[in-house]
Write a structure and sequence with these properties.
The protein is α/β, with parallel strands linked by helices. It contains 13 helices and 18 strands. Helix 1 packs parallel to helix 6 and helix 8 crosses helix 11. 44% of the residues are buried.
Length: 430
C-alpha cells in the first residue's frame, strides 16, 4: 500500500511532522531508537543529554503547544548560567556581568563599546566588533565563538546573528556599575522534564504517532517513479506519494538517484561540527548551584558544561551531582580522533585545574558522540543552500529540521518548521 507521506528521519522534526500530518504518514529511522540530537542517556544512575537542551521560546504559540503536550512532565526553572573568566563567575551574557571584571578589563569593555568606530561589515567577526566593541569582542566573543564553531569568525556569515541580542548603551553602563540587568530575557525561565532527560519531548511525540514509525531502516536509495517515490534500505522498499527529508541533507542527497553534480557539490561544500559529550559523575553535591558555565579559554577542551543535578534529584544518585561537558570538533580533526579515554582525561583534568571539581570525587564517566551537531554559517553557506533548496523545490521534496534545512534550530524552531511544512503539504494534498 502506498502511503501519502514518507518522512525520512526520526528525530524531533520527523516525529512531530508525523503528528501534524496524521495517519497517512510513516517515519523511517535508521537507528533502533528515535530522537536524533534530542536523545538522553543513563549511566550508573546519572541521566544526561546529547548536548545542552532546555524548553524556551520567543514563539509563544509553539511554547504553549510544547507545555500542553508535556503537561505534568516538566518543571519550571530559573536559567542561572555564567561565564568562567579568569577563574571567576561572570553573569551571562558577558556584557551583563562587567562589574566583576578587573578594572582594566572593565574599562576595556565599556570604553570600546562606547567609542566604537565601525568597520565595513563583511562577516561575523565584523559584526561582533561593530556591535559590541573591541573589549567585549577580544575578551569573550571572539575566543568563545572561535572555540565552539572551530571556524574563525572572519570566515562566517551573519545570517544567524538575530539569535544574539544587541545590548543597549544603558544596559552596558549599568553592567559596568553593578546595576542588575538581564539579557536574553526569553531564556530567563525555562522548562525541563522532571525525569528522563530531554528525550521525553521526542518520546512524547513517538507515543502519539505509535504504529507509524519504522526503525532500523537506513535510507540508502531514493528513486523517482512516475508520481511516487521508492525509498530503500538495500533490503526493503517503501513507496510514498510525497517525501520529506528530516534526516541530514548530506545523506539524503547522496541517496537520491541521479542527483545533479552541482547539487552534490553544494552539499559537499556545507560545513558542520560534530559533538562529543562527556558525563562526569561526582560522589558529592555540587557547590556551583547553577545550570551551567561557558568557557572561552582555548586550553580547555570543552566550551560549555551543564550541571544536571540542577534539574532535580531524579538526575543523579542520592547525594551525588554530575557535569555534562560539551566539545565541538570537525569530523576530520585530531580532536575527534581522540579516544574516549583521552577525551575524558582532558575533560576531568581541565575541570580540576580550574578548581571546579576534585578528581577524587569522580565516580563515573562516559562519552557519547554524534556526527551531525551544529551547522556552520560559513561565508558560502547561503549560495550552496540556494542550489540545494531550488533543486528540492523543483522535485517536490520538502525539507524539515536542523540538518535537513541546515539551519541552527532549537527545538522550538524545529516544531515551528514541522508545523509550517505539514500545513503546506496537507494543503497541496487537498
Amino acid at each position: 500500500m502506498v502511503k501519502q507521506f514518507g518522512i525520512l528521519g526520526g528525530g524531533l522534526a520527523g516525529l512531530s511532522l508525523s503528528y501534524f500530518l496524521g495517519e497517512d504518514s510513516e517515519v523511517l529511522e535508521k537507528d533502533s531508537s528515535c530522537g536524533g540530537l534530542c536523545r538522553s542517556y543513563q549511566h550508573e544512575g546519572f541521566t544526561f543529554d546529547m548536548g545542552g537542551h532546555i524548553i524556551f521560546s520567543k514563539d509563544q504559540e509553539i511554547l504553549d503547544f510544547e507545555l500542553e503536550l508535556l503537561k505534568g512532565k516538566v518543571d519550571r526553572h530559573f536559567r542561572n548560567v555564567s561565564i568562567w573568566f579568569k577563574k571567576r563567575l561572570v553573569k551571562f551574557p558577558f556584557e551583563n556581568g562587567l562589574s566583576v571584571l578587573d578594572p582594566e578589563d572593565k574599562f576595556d569593555c565599556l570604553y570600546n563599546f562606547l567609542e566604537n568606530p565601525q568597520r565595513p561589515q563583511n562577516n561575523f567577526e565584523d559584526w561582533i566588533y561593530n556591535t559590541f566593541g573591541k573589549g567585549l569582542a577580544d575578551n569573550y566573543l571572539i575566543p568563545y565563538n572561535t572555540k565552539i564553531w572551530k571556524t574563525p569568525p572572519s570566515e562566517m556569515g551573519t545570517h544567524w546573528v538575530e539569535r544574539v541580542p544587541k545590548p543597549s548603551v544603558s544596559d552596558i553602563v549599568k553592567s559596568a556599575l553593578g546595576v542588575e540587568s538581564e539579557g536574553y530575557t526569553h531564556q530567563l525561565y525555562f522548562h525541563y522534564p522532571k525525569t528522563g532527560g530531554f528525550q521525553v519531548l521526542p518520546d512524547t511525540f513517538e507515543d502519539l504517532v505509535s504504529g507509524r514509525v519504522t526503525k532500523n531502516f537506513a535510507v540508502k536509495r531514493i528513486v523517482r517513479k512516475a508520481n511516487s517515490w521508492i525509498v530503500s534500505d538495500g533490503e526493503q522498499e517503501r513507496e510514498y506519494n510525497k517525501i520529506v527529508c528530516a534526516m541530514p541533507i548530506f545523506d539524503f542527497i547522496r541517496a537520491l538517484e541521479n542527483a545533479p553534480p552541482e547539487v552534490l557539490r553544494a552539499v559537499d561544500a556545507l560545513q558542520f561540527n560534530s559533538l562529543i559529550v562527556v558525563l562526569v559523575g561526582l560522589k558529592k553535591k555540587s557547590t556551583l548551584n547553577r545550570l551551567g558555565l561557558y568557557f572561552p579559554q582555548m586550553d580547555l577542551i570543552f566550551h560549555r558544561i551543564s550541571c544536571l543535578d540542577y534539574y532535580g534529584e531524579n538526575y543523579c544518585p542520592p547525594g551525588c551531582s554530575s557535569i555534562q561537558a560539551e566539545i565541538t570538533a570537525r569530523e576530520t580533526s585530531d580532536l575527534w580522533a581522540m579516544s574516549d579515554a583521552e577525551v575524558t582525561r582532558e575533560t576531568v583534568d581541565g575541570l580540576a585545574r580550574e578548581g571546579l571539581i576534585d578528581k577524587n570525587d569522580v565516580i563515573a564517566t562516559t562519552v557519547k558522540r554524534t556526527k551531525y551537531a551544529y551547522p556552520i554559517y560559513d561565508i558560502d553557506r547561503e549560495k550552496n543552500l540556494d542550489i540545494i533548496y531550488a533543486y528540492c523545490k523543483n522535485e517536490g521534496i520538502e525539507l524539515c529540521g536542523r540538518f535537513a534545512e541546515f539551519i541552527y534550530y532549537n527545538s522550538d524552531g524545529i516544531l515551528r518548521s514541522s508545523k509550517t511544512v505539514s500545513a503546506r503539504m496537507l494543503e497541496k494534498a487537498n
